[in-house]
Amino acid sequence: MQMKKLLAFLILCFSINLFSKELELVDETLMTIYHPEGNVLIIKSDIKSGLTGAPRTPRDLLVEELAILDSKKLKIEVSDQDVEKYLNQLQKQAGYTKKQIEMSFKELGYTIESGKEELRRAQMIQEITTYRTRSQKQLIVTPEAIYNYYIAHPIKQEAVYKIAQGIFNFNPKKSKEENLKALDKLIKSGDINYAILWDEPIELKESEFSKNQKFITTMEESAVAKLKTTENSIVLVKLVKKFPEAFVPLEEREEEIEMQLKMKKVKELVNEYQEKLIKDAKINYHTHIDFLDQQPLQEENPF
Known about the structure:
By secondary structure, this protein is an alpha+beta fold. It contains nine helices and nine strands. It has helices spanning 2-13, 58-73, 80-94, 98-107, 112-133, 143-152, 176-189, 192-195, 250-280; strands spanning 29-34, 40-43, 156-157, 160-169, 202-205, 224-229, 233-243, 246-247, 282-285. It has a four-stranded antiparallel beta sheet with strand order 5-4-7-6, with no helix packed on it. A three-stranded antiparallel beta sheet has the order 2-1-9, covered by helices on one side. Helix 2 crosses helix 5, helix 2 (58-73) crosses helix 9 and helix 3 (80-94) packs across helix 5. The two termini are 50 Å apart.
């Protein structure tokens, strides 16, 4: 289960945004990649939202193209059957019919066939990224690292109060003052615990109490107090147990911290892989591109 989560996170880190190359006009050449598996020309119109609808940056497209070339170098192939299986999974997850999938492709400027080709690219990128960064040895998180993270990032759990409610009904043969005196006597002696029926206790966090109920947080355990007075009765509240504010124990956070540190390491490995792809590639930049500026290029209005 953990490896599945890590794999999903790895894919997310790579920022796979599928894109269309069905363009009729070449507006501006940004980069040319020279590679033994083939040369790739990247133009400004390529840098646009793809099937995901997410914005893209020049760097996003560059590392994706380099990853595709790297996958070809290792003879990684994605068959038509693999694409169909992937498409069916996406369709099932989204709850779409095949017709709705086709309409979604169309709205984004894709035919069903060109859309499938973009899915093929996504799978190739996923497989090569996983292959290049999947070392189990690199993903080992030591107990010391988990403990250090726990100390550096403490999480407090809110105080919790276990309370019960009961109703003290007035004796109609006595005055209100007499009933109140009788109730005070029962509370003081502790006999109130047996004199009325109490509801099943419930647990409430401190933040869940209303302004008029905040006094409950100052009560002692087993104490009984008047919550609300009606014409013929009084609603009582009893503090059964108080669980003070405390730090969440390490044992309860250990698995979550381990996963968080592994995901952080996965992100680092993906970034290292991307940087290596760019460093080792032969790229001709036809225009100035500041990769430190990660703002996506604005799509121009053709009208």
